[in-house]
Specification:
- The complex is a heterodimer.
- By secondary structure, chain A is of the alpha/beta class.
- Chain A is 33% helix and 26% strand.
- In chain A, strands 6-9-10-3-11-12 form a 6-stranded mixed sheet, sandwiched between helices.
- The longest helix of chain A is centred in the middle third of the chain and has 16 residues, at 181-196.
- Chain B starts with 19 loop residues before the first helix and ends with a helix.
- Chain B is globular.
- Chain B contains 13 helices and 2 strands.
- The chains are: A alpha/beta, B mainly alpha.
- At the A-B interface, helix 10, helix 11, strand 20 and helix 13 of A face helix 8, helix 9 and helix 13 of B.
Chain lengths: 517, 372
């Protein structure tokens, strides 16, 4: 059903189909984008979003179907043709040269020239870049080197780069995957500005909050088919989720828990924990809390307020200056990461490609890392290949890790499935304490749901869970108590019953105001 | 395997236990993809080398025949081939461990030299010991000396984050100047010309392989290292930890691997094997320490290891290939008008072609990522 509020379509796709070998990436996509709207494309990982965008950007050619731009049927034969048609794309992974300036990056390969085209006209280039930055009100300077910019700023450079050549239709491929929450807010403002300037924005995402926050309409695709286009006004997040997954989704809910007093002593206690960084600034200041068996303590906060450091300090990856950490009453402050793991601590790090996995190694080896001691994987000093394969195959099945065989290099899996590998490895240890950081970042809804269920299940088995997340909804849904981190401190710990989004937001944003000052 | 599934899973990947046949097929496929590119590089090197020989030589076919096939003409030639392959193989296996652990030991030449001179010094100072203990003690001395020299850059790396490529390379000069001093003063044979030590006591000489003159049982020791290294790297938890540390240190730390100790251990092993190679050369081939005994084994072994793509089984083939070139060069120079320096050219060309391959692969990968 076409929504009635849509204006005249600037871009229209009908029956687009694309196969790679025997794999059908896109089966039948219909899409109609009205001029001047913000149109979200929503779907789970692997639903065909990226393939669709690559077709629009001229990187892939469709096998069937028609594309029309401004009522004219077109063949987008390559990126140059896409750009000529006024389609600009901002890729998820940036394509900037870090050592060059903002202006140089914007005009890379197409610098204004003078003296018969022999010399780049740097002054004109800087001026043009400055004009564009001013037009969209971005906090950039043409002479800044890209390597000095934050991720959010780099993305704005990409956006300007795409707009520099009169792109009327701007495609943003999962633009928020790499951004911190504050930067996401900025991006939402940027998109609003773009719309006010008459651009059409196609916004690919699987985060429902962003769809309802910024898009006028949303098209949901599932298994390579477009399953519907809706106005976002009055549309709820769970309605979109149901469309994406094709069934009713369990958006994680707080479990019914016995009151805190019935669960005995704290399993993990943290007292006065303080840690300095390389420049002797305190990144953790006097952090104190305790977690009982079966309890989920959520840590909310704007990213960069010490959450990363807290997780590292607890797992033995960061030295602490003072304070104490105990596990079951034993002082583990001076223990190594390996010894802590041996005592029953498990860790799901915030960045799976950084600390969570070794992308070049196989799924089996990633699952088995630090688990060699258990399950009879090692016989007479040697790893039994049969046992290793069986162990890996078991985990793949139990955790529904898709597209994986034991010997698949783990780096070839999708984000959600990589996260499941990390989860499977850490939960296979039957941990007594689980430290989990940003468990669903860059993970699609279906997998997020699964991850949440697994975390809650671990808690129900009596594991003490520390859940660090910048997604407030996640913290609120899973935690029994919620602490807020601000500039290295845990400023307050609320019972989940008393915690509301507004209250937590207030605690968190107090920090933001201070940082800005 | 049970037919029921305990989880509702719509699109579960096929994770049945693979059959023995399927596993073999997969292995074969993997081996082929891994070895295809080095093989192409070797083939291109040989072809362009031949074109070069055609230009400079009256009898290019004979020259190439001498370069590669004269190695197998007589048992003595085969013995020489194995004698040259021994240090290459031992050093390259050590280098594989260090590179797999993510620390780039390019100081094998120095470690080889201190290993050689320590073995010689021990053998010379204990002439009363019977054969077996003397050989074992000398070998242990070589191994320990090489390991000790490699321990220094390992510690510098772990404690102060000093670039190990610089330190290991610089220590090569330190080591060789040290041995040069030792062999010119305290260990010098006063009756001999040049910087050579006195002859080692006869019972310290390694036995020859029967039927292959000049090849000592040192080659067998090197040969045993191949399956052992493979087992350690790919079939023990320690090997898995070492590779984890090498492929992603921060991951290794997070799963409880002590990356620092892995680096130190890999350096000790790598330096130790280079030192052992020196000891075996002195005990099995030279029977005395000579300052110029190595034609650059340490550096050649680096290319040997890289051409084998850091695989301890493939390294057996690549070390034999390089040894054949080193050895065959002599026969070629004697028999034909092609100078032996052709081999330096060929080895250089091979390095270039390997890097060309690598960069091309790298770009193809980038293109794929952008296109994906």
């Amino acid at each position: 059903m076409e929504a009635s509020t849509a204006g005249h379509p600037i871009l229209r796709l009908q029956g687009i189909r694309k196969t790679f070998g025997s794999k059908v990436a896109i089966d039948a996509i219909d899409l109609s984008v009205a001029a001047g709207e913000v149109h979200a494309i929503c779907g789970e990982n692997g639903a065909g979003k990226s393939t669709l965008m690559n077709i629009l950007a001229g990187i892939h050619q469709p096998d069937a179907g028609t594309i029309s731009v401004r009522d004219r049927d077109v063949q987008i034969t390559g990126p140059a043709e896409a750009s000529r048609l006024g389609i600009g794309m901002v890729h998820q992974h940036f394509t900037l040269v870090p050592s060059m300036t903002v202006a140089e990056n914007i005009f890379l390969g197409r610098q204004p020239r003078r003296w018969g085209g022999l010399v780049a006209d740097r002054a004109a280039m800087r001026r043009a870049a400055g004009d564009m930055i001013a037009r969209y009100g971005f906090d950039l300077r043409p002479d800044q080197r890209v390597r000095e910019l934050t991720v959010g700023q780099r993305q704005r450079v990409e956006i300007i780069k795409a707009l520099a050549f009169d792109a009327e239709i701007l495609i943003l491929d999962e633009p928020t995957a790499v951004l911190t929450p504050a930067e996401v807010d900025d991006l939402m403002n940027v998109i609003a500005v773009l719309r006010d300037r008459g651009r059409t924005v196609l916004f690919i995402t699987h985060k429902l909050r962003e769809v309802t926050a910024v898009a006028d309409r949303v098209t949901v695709i599932r298994h390579g088919r477009s399953v519907g286009t809706r106005d976002t006004a009055g549309l709820s997040e769970s309605e979109i989720a149901d469309l994406m997954v094709g069934r009713a989704v369990f958006l994680a809910e707080r479990k019914q828990v016995p009151p805190r007093t019935e669960r005995g002593d704290d399993r993990l206690t943290v007292t006065g924990l303080t840690s300095l960084d390389g420049r002797a600034r305190a990144v953790l200041k006097d952090v104190t809390f305790g977690i009982r068996p079966g309890e989920v303590l959520g840590i909310a906060g704007v990213e960069g307020n010490g959450q990363t450091e807290l997780a590292e300090a607890l797992t033995g990856l960061r030295p602490v200056t003072s304070g104490r950490v105990t596990l079951d009453g034993a002082d583990i402050t001076a223990w190594s990461a390996g010894r802590r793991r041996g005592a029953g601590m498990a860790f799901i790090p915030e960045d799976r490609l950084d600390r969570g996995l070794s992308p070049a190694m196989s799924v089996a080896e990633n699952l088995a890392a630090s688990n060699y001691g258990r399950g009879g994987l090692v016989r007479r000093g040697l790893i039994s290949q049969v046992a290793l394969r069986r162990f890996a195959a078991d985990q793949i099945r139990r955790f529904d890790i898709r597209g994986a065989a034991p010997e698949t290099p783990v780096g070839t899996l999708s984000g959600g499935n990589m996260q499941k590998v990390v989860l499977a490895r850490e939960l296979a240890r039957e941990p007594r304490v689980l430290v989990v950081s940003q468990p669903t970042r860059g993970v699609d809804i279906g997998a997020s749901e699964f991850v949440h269920r697994q975390i809650l299940a671990a808690a129900e088995r009596g594991c003490a869970v520390l859940l660090i997340s910048s997604e407030l909804s996640e913290v609120l849904a899973l935690s029994d108590r919620i602490g807020v981190m601000l500039r290295g401190r845990v400023v307050d710990v609320l019972d989940a019953a008393d915690a509301t989004e507004t209250r937590l937001g207030l605690l968190m944003s107090g920090g933001r105001a201070e940082v800005a000052a | 395997m049970s037919t029921t599934r305990d989880m509702p899973a719509p699109i579960v990947a096929d994770v049945r236990q693979e059959t023995r046949q399927a596993a073999l097929r997969r292995r074969a496929r993997e081996t082929w993809t891994a070895s295809r590119r080095p093989l192409i590089a070797v083939a291109l090197t040989l072809v362009s080398g031949f074109l070069l020989v055609v230009v400079v030589s009256d009898n290019p076919v004979l020259a190439y025949e001498q370069l590669f096939f004269a190695n197998f003409a007589t048992p003595a030639n085969v013995g020489n081939l194995l004698m040259r392959a021994t240090p290459l193989l031992l050093i390259a296996v050590g280098i594989i461990f260090s590179f797999r652990a993510g620390i780039f030991n390019v100081g094998a030449e120095g470690q080889l030299y201190v290993g050689a001179i320590s073995a010689a010094a021990v053998a010379l100072s204990l002439p009363a010991l019977p054969a077996v203990p003397l050989i074992l003690v000398s070998m242990a001395a070589g191994l320990a000396a090489g390991a000790a020299l490699a321990w220094i850059p390992g510690q510098l790396k772990v404690r102060f984050n000093v670039d190990e490529v610089v330190t290991t390379l610089m220590l090569n000069f330190t080591a060789m100047l040290l041995t040069s001093y030792l062999v010119s003063k305290p260990l010098r044979d006063p009756t001999a010309y040049g910087a050579t030590s006195r002859l080692l006591p006869p019972q310290s000489h390694l036995p020859q392989i029967p039927g292959l003159p000049t090849a000592s049982i040192g080659f067998l020791i090197a040969l045993i290292m191949v399956p052992v290294a493979w087992l350690v790297l790919f079939r023990t938890p320690w090997g898995a930890n070492l590779r984890a540390a090498g492929s992603n240190v921060r991951f290794a730390e997070a799963v409880g691997v002590r990356a620092r100790s892995e680096i130190i251990r890999a350096m000790l092993l790598s330096g130790g094997l280079a030192g052992l190679a020196g000891a075996i050369y002195v005990l099995g081939t030279g029977h005395r320490f000579e300052q110029n005994f190595s034609p650059g084994f340490g550096l050649i072994a680096l290319t040997v290891a890289l051409l084998a793509r850091l695989h301890p089984v493939a390294v057996l083939l690549t070390s034999l290939f390089y040894a054949a070139m080193l050895n065959g060069a002599a026969y070629m120079q004697i028999t034909t008008d092609v100078p032996r320096s052709l081999v330096s050219l060929l080895t250089g060309l091979l390095v270039v072609l390997m890097t060309v391959e690598f960069r091309r692969r790298h770009r193809a990968k980038v293109r794929k990522e952008v296109g994906a």
